[in-house]
Amino acid sequence: MNRLLNFKEKILLVFVILAMILGASLEVVSIGFFLPFISQLLDLNYSENIEFINNFNKVIFDLFGDLSIIQVSVLFASVFILKNIIIYAAHFLNSYFSFKVTERVSFEVFNSYLSNRYQSLLNSTRSEKINNIINHIETFREFINHLLIIITEILVFSVLLFFLLFISLKEILFSAILTFIFAFVIYFYLKTKNRKWGKTISINREEKIDLIVQSFNLFKIIKVLNKENFFKKYFKNFNTKQLKYSHYTYAVSSLPRHLFEIYGAMFLSLFLIFAFNQNFSNQEILAISSIFLLALLRLLPATSRIVQSSTRLNLYKYPFDKIYEAYFETQNLKLNEISLDKKIPFKSIEFKNVSFKYNKNSKFIFNNINLRILKK
Q1: What CATH number matches the domain at 2-336, 3.40.50.1010, 1.20.1560.10, 3.30.565.10, 1.10.10.10?
Q2: Could you tell me where the DSSP H helices lie in 168-281?
């Protein structure tokens, strides 16, 4: 990925990451300000069982003094407004970064095809190049977007986890380890499947494009020889495979989110059981569970998006590799190709046992042809 970025894009990426860090920090601040808001509503300025509430209320008092419920509400709302403005700005930078990189890379890929000599066209089919420029380049942009999502959500998860560890070290650490194990199980279950499905989708899309190009180029011959059913048959085969595996990827894409929602509900239920067994007052349970619930509403979606985006990277790996190869194709060809200006002496051109068919399942158009052309 680093080789694909130019200097300006690397500088832009630095600003994107800084905006992500600021947004992640404001996530914690906004959740932190929810505690004095709840404390004011419940009139819980002091807790006999939860020392964290006392410490946090003391910090707020030292910073802002004795605040009324209206002042706390205004402060709480202001932090949330600022947080969402910063997060949207970070999202805009993410989108702009992926747009600029994709715009330049797509032009460079197309330019490399036009700049190459004719012999390079013979090394790959036209459908492969069309697929790269139209479909794979869009997938390449999605690859960048999901990579940025992973970076963003890891930052949010890390900062929120660090904040929660101050509330309850042992319990949160244990819960975090369970969450990591749960996330890795889901990721590794979907990893191989998504990589395989992504390659199958790209290959069948390419075959479909190749078939469409050939059918239009040979339209008159197809009509004369009455070969419509031949092209329909293979189009249906390629189209069905592509759409079937696209359906699979879409169907499992939301699976991590639902699994993490179930996991979060179970975690919150266990926490409430633990709180009741510790003889916490109803006010204390409501205050601390509100913080945990607010954190879970951000932590679990963050974990879910990390897993989802990681599996999407596996889905998009094959198209990304194709774009990467196409981007550097011109440089590699310049190093390896023989100049056409150089005259190569020859007496004849000879073909031996040459065969051709459209794909591995079709009949040969010609088979084992031998031909020799003498130089005049």
Answers
A1: 1.20.1560.10
A2: 169-217, 219-225, 228-253, 255-277
Q: What tokens were used for 31?
A: 């959740």
The H-or-E segment that residue 352 falls in is strand 348-356
What pLDDT, on a 0 to 100 scale, did the predictor assign at position 54? 63
**Neighbour tally for 242: CB within 10 Å:** 19
Q: What is the DSSP string of 115-183?
A: HS-HHHHTTS-HHHHHHIIIIIHHHHHHHHHHHHHHHHHHHHHHHHHHHHHHH-HHHHHHHHHHHHHHH
Per-residue pLDDT tens over the stretch 349-368? 888 888 887 776 777 877 88
Identify the CA nearest to 315 among candidates 136, 195, 201. 195
Half-sphere CA count of 91, side-chain side, radius 13 A:
7
Cα distance between residue 316 and residue 202, in whole Å = 9
Mean pLDDT score across all residues of the chain: 79
Kindly list the distances between the CA atom of residue 83 and the CA atoms of 56, 299, 303, in Å, as whole numbers in the listed order. Answer: 20, 16, 20
Per-residue tokens: 372: 């020799």
- 65 torsion bin: left (phi>0), alpha (psi -120 to 50), beta (else): left
Q: Residue 100 in contact with residue 9, Cβ under 8 Å?
A: yes
Q: What DSSP assignment string belongs to 66-123?
A: S--HHHHHHHHHHHHHHHHHHHHHHHHHHHHHHHHHHHHHHHHHHHHHHHS-HHHHTT
Q: Which residue has the tokens 């090394």?
A: 123
Q: CA-to-CA distance for 193 and 186, rounded, in angstroms?
A: 12
